[in-house]
Amino acid sequence: MSDPHHVLIIREILATEQRYVQSLLALEHVYHEPLRIACENRETALAAAPVLRPEELRSIFSIVAVITKLHQSFVASLEKEIQQRGETASSVLHVFREYVAQFRMYSGYCSNYPAALSTLASCIQKRKSLGVWLQERRELPEAMRMDMQSLLIMPVQRLPRYVLLLTDLAKRLPQEEKNAKVEVERVLGEVKAVTDMVNESQRDAENALKVMQVQEKLTGKKNEIIMTPARRFIGEGECTHHQTSEIAKRRHYFIFNDALLLTSPDTMPVFGSNKLKFVCLIPMQHVRFIPQQSPDQVRIQTPVQYTISSGSPKYSSTFNLQMPSQQDKDTFTNAVIAQVDAMTSLIKSQEQAREAYPTGRFRTIVNHLTLRGRGKTHQDSDTQHANANANTNTTHIIILFIVILTLLYLVARSLWASPHPPPPPPPTHHWLWDLITGGDEKEPQEPAESFWSRMLG
């Protein structure tokens, strides 16, 4: 008689965790540790492994060592619980409840993963010996015939694997184990929440890397910095730009959540490069479509003029773009309209908040949200005005503070410099004299100091 399905899933959870720890140890011992030793001993370890810079090692391996230690402890706890309590759902769930909060550290690794692959590819391209060394290490028994790229992606895939296994476990539990099923659902919800958080951070990191790659492609004297924290990459494509009395020019466009970037392919590219010349960056709130009869043409009208030529400066507020096909036109138009609507709604809500809370802390919050939503908000007059007011208020406070300190200093100085009142004159009559003479004789009129000096010897 075969074992119940939920027992088989519990065994699979343990078996896959054991294999996962072996893979992490292979990544550490076969690849990371030799490269780290070579980096620390640059003069003596050149023959053992290629030398990478410390920042390259950190980018490639990130927190692999920490994740390895975490899962060594996790699998040991799983083995102990199953050995003591048997192959039951409660034994597995007890361990997951204990460790699920620590799985949040995957956010850092998954966010860094695109940059890790980019750094590794760059290092292999610059150092041919590294590619040869990695191939040799792959053939070692400890590496389990897995290259470094295959091992690096395993932590990215691990949390979604837990979700699948726990979901399957919840479905396969017997009906009589209702309490265990409720507990599986609760633990599954916690693991899903952590996984969603990690996936979101990974998507943000991948998007930021894409924007950075676009930035690195741009050239030209009037090139602008397009890398901003709130900017998100939406799409890109090719088109032709038609200007009045000019030959049509090829353009490569990039759609972001807050702007439309037009670039021009480099006419004299270096071999193997894909550089693009910056043409203009149009904020989404300035984009207005004008209907066209042609199925593949798009006409954009803007309220301001943008520089589109740096040699003899030319300006334009109308952009006639011809797409390769009607499908490309529809894709471009739908993507841009969606971002324009989102940006317009965001700006409207910010203006309403600004009217409701025009001063104080809420004004600061509104300005911060505006900066995140617009991308190039530093060119917006409202934000410049708000920043100017904030700077003016700060200056006034500093001046007032200096004036108060000056006044306090002058008052203290005048009090310290004023003459002290003279001491009271010595007494001419004293009770001790009356006691000695019985009050019948008059006290001699002489300085009290000389009199008492004689009296006291």
Task: Report on this structure.
With about 450 residues, this protein is an alpha+beta fold. About 60% of the residues lie in helices and about 15% in strands. The protein has 14 helices and eight strands. Strands 1-5-4-3-2-8-7-6 form an eight-stranded mixed β-sheet, covered by helices on one side. Helix 8 (about 155-170) runs antiparallel to helix 9 and helix 10 packs antiparallel against helix 11 (about 360-375). The longest helix has about 40 residues, at about 180-215. The N and C termini lie far apart (about 125 Å). The model is unreliable at about 370-390 (pLDDT under 50).
Biggest sheet: strand arrangement: 1-5-4-3-2-8-7-6
Radius of gyration: 39 Å
Largest sheet: 8 strands, mixed
The ordered string of helix (H) and strand (E) elements is HHHHHHHHHEEEEEEEEHHHHH
Helix content: 55-70%
Q: pLDDT average, as an integer? A: 79
What is the CA–CA distance across the termini?
123 Å
Assess the beta-strand content as a share of residues: 5-15%
List low-pLDDT spans. 370-388
Number of strands: 8
Count of DSSP H/I helices = 14
